[in-house]
Design brief:
The protein has about 160 residues and is an alpha/beta fold. It is built from 7 helices and 5 strands, in the order βααβααβααββα. Strands 3-2-1-4-5 form a 5-stranded parallel β-sheet.
Length: about 160
């Protein structure tokens, strides 16, 4: 039986990595539900890039930059380099489509999110785990934001 692929958005990766994040418990439960439903978790390089940037900015703003290395290690334990799907190199080829998607959503999808959405369509990835409701504007993706959604969308026959 083929596993259903699910892209994890940066807000999930950050929340799983940072126990002080307000979404930490929910994100861990959602990630665990996806794993328990035998989903194939997909990690795009630009999502990992964004998660690292958010963790860096957050630890700096909260005067806890000394903890950045620990949070980075937690993130990288969740997403080992060998599990990263590299799509950023496709931005040049997909540039016009990315701009078109940004334009059609009136900017609610940023450049990276549009790249992610287009890569999901090309790779046949139907689901995105995210707390960001802007993903619902992408017709070919279904957003999973709760453990209940994970269970119902990935229910085994």
């Amino acid at each position: 039986m083929t596993k259903t692929s699910v892209i994890l958005d940066a807000n999930i990766l950050v929340a799983v990595s940072d126990e002080r994040d307000k979404w930490h418990v929910t994100a861990v439960a959602l990630r665990n539900a996806l794993v328990n439903q035998d989903a194939q978790l997909v990690f795009f390089d630009c999502v990992v890039n964004e998660a690292i940037a958010v963790i860096g900015r957050r630890t700096e703003e909260q005067n806890r930059s000394d903890q950045f290395g620990r949070y980075l290690d937690i993130l990288l334990a969740q997403v080992p380099e060998r599990n990263i799907t590299w799509i950023s190199g496709e931005a040049q080829r997909l540039f016009q489509s990315i701009i078109g998607l940004c334009r059609s959503t009136r900017g609610t999808l940023n450049f990276h999110d549009a790249l992610i959405a287009l890569a999901c369509r090309e790779l046949g990835i139907p689901l995105v785990a995210s707390f960001d409701q802007d993903w619902e504007k992408v017709s070919w993706l279904k957003r999973i934001g709760t453990t209940e959604q994970a269970k119902s969308l990935l229910e085994k026959p």
